[in-house]
């Protein structure tokens, strides 16, 4: 965990892994602080990281308000949950073109600005905590910064790398994204990175002093994410189950996973393995069509979005969990929540050899050659054939999450970031 050497972190209070993570929060550490969190791409409390941050700040004594979009079953324009004020706004349908993105970002900035002033004249705030994407929320924060408010940038996604991975080029729009990112860092009193690769970007491309950048990982709440009794129905009568939890999108590499399944079933004759894929996203229907085209409908179950109970049952039943994210500039430097969630329920992992995936999982995972579905399939087969390796890797992963990567272990650094911002 990379934090400033000049910040002394308070030790965590002793708390059981079964207890809510709020039991690990130093009480009154942020008493009297008033915080406005702005997140554009997901509603709260659906956005797990933002909701954990908000609950942590609230438990530390701060007054917390959130501005976010509607969606994912959260349609109320205003509500209070666990003492946290949530203001929501509508957005245009998912953007699929430059004009669509312009409409979405313009609508979001207008709504965020309007609601920020409403909060300012209501419960008030002394700190704006902006969560990207996109890197435009600094425009909402700028007038409040001129009024003496603090600005914390929570760096969730590296947008220039995402653009490069999606379009396989740089060019004008890539440079524009770099400019927005630099302006955001320039305005920030403190930035929060989700891993050390992002921290390096903040210090180099963003030009921030190292003592202003804090690494707060998106660790799972080990009081919530844990093994439950398995459900054999997910095996579809087969001996083994391989599980996947995540977004069904272009960057997530689920198409490569289906190619690996095709190799296992039709080339290696492995009819004893069922795959269960949990999650929704823009590519879900096309992936179902691909599965049918490859003759895998009986071997691959698409659950779509599932409630926590069902998701945890799939993970607890699985013999191996997979992360088929493509190796590209975005995924190589990003920490994927699903990796830590697999580790939290003691599951061995197969993934492609992405830099931050290896940093997170270590010996809890096997690593296939870059974007190679055949090697990915071979790694799954090897792991299914080694009971002792699966148990050993699962134990290592769970112990690593509890010791270093859970949300409970990230709380002191989040609070230290707020103390640093207050001194600017």
Mean pLDDT: 93
* Main sheet: strands, sense, barrel: 8 strands, mixed
Strand portion, in percent?
A: 15-25%
The secondary-structure element order is EHEEEHEHEHHEHEEHEHEHEHHEHEHHH
State the helicity in percent bands. Answer: 40-55%
Reading side by side through the largest sheet, how are the strands ordered? 3-4-2-1-5-6-7-8
How many separate domains make up the residues? 2
CATH hierarchy, class of the largest domain: Alpha Beta
Compute the number of strand runs.
Answer: 14
CATH topology of the largest domain: Rossmann fold
At the fourth level of CATH, the homologous superfamily of the largest domain is Glycogen Phosphorylase B
Radius of gyration: 22 Å
Q: In DSSP terms, counting alpha (H) and pi (I) runs of 4 or more, how many helices?
A: 15
């Amino acid at each position: 965990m990379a934090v400033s050497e000049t910040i002394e972190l308070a030790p965590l209070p002793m708390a059981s892994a079964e207890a809510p993570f709020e039991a690990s929060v130093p009480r009154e550490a942020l008493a009297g602080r008033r915080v406005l969190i702005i997140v554009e791409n997901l509603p709260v409390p659906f956005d797990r990281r933002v909701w954990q941050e908000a609950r942590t700040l609230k438990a530390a004594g701060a007054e917390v308000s959130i501005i976010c979009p509607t969606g994912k079953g959260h349609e109320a324009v205003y509500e209070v949950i666990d003492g946290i004020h949530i203001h929501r706004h509508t957005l245009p349908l998912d953007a699929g073109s430059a004009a669509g993105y312009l409409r979405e970002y313009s609508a979001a900035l207008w709504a965020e600005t309007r609601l920020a002033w409403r909060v300012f004249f209501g419960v008030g705030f002394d700190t704006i905590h902006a969560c990207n994407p996109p890197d435009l929320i600094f425009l909402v924060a700028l007038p409040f910064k001129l009024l003496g408010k603090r600005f914390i940038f929570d760096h969730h996604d590296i947008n220039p790398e995402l653009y490069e991975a999606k379009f396989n080029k740089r060019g004008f729009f890539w440079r524009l994204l770099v400019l927005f990112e630099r302006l955001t860092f320039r305005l920030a009193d403190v930035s929060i990175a989700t891993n050390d690769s992002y921290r390096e970007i903040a210090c180099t491309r963003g030009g921030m002093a190292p003592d202003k950048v804090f690494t707060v990982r998106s660790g799972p709440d080990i009081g919530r994410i844990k093994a439950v009794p398995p459900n054999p129905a997910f095996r579809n009568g087969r001996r083994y189950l391989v599980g996947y939890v995540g977004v069904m999108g272009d960057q997530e590499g689920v198409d490569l996973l289906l190619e690996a399944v095709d190799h296992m079933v039709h080339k290696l004759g492995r009819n004893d393995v069922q795959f269960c894929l949990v999650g929704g996203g823009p590519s879900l229907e096309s992936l179902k069509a691909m599965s049918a085209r490859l003759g895998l409908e009986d071997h691959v179950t698409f659950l779509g979005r599932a409630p926590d109970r069902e998701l945890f049952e799939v993970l607890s039943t699985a013999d191996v969990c997979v992360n088929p994210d493509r190796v590209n500039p975005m995924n190589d430097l990003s920490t994927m929540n699903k990796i830590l969630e697999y580790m939290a329920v003691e599951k061995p992992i197969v993934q492609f050899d992405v830099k931050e995936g290896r940093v997170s999982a270590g010996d809890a995972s096997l690593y296939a050659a870059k974007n190679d579905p055949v090697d990915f399939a071979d790694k799954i087969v090897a792991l299914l054939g080694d009971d002792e390796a699966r148990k050993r890797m699962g134990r290592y992963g769970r112990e690593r999450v509890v010791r270093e990567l859970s949300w409970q272990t990230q709380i002191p650094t989040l609070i230290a970031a707020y103390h640093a911002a207050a001194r600017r």
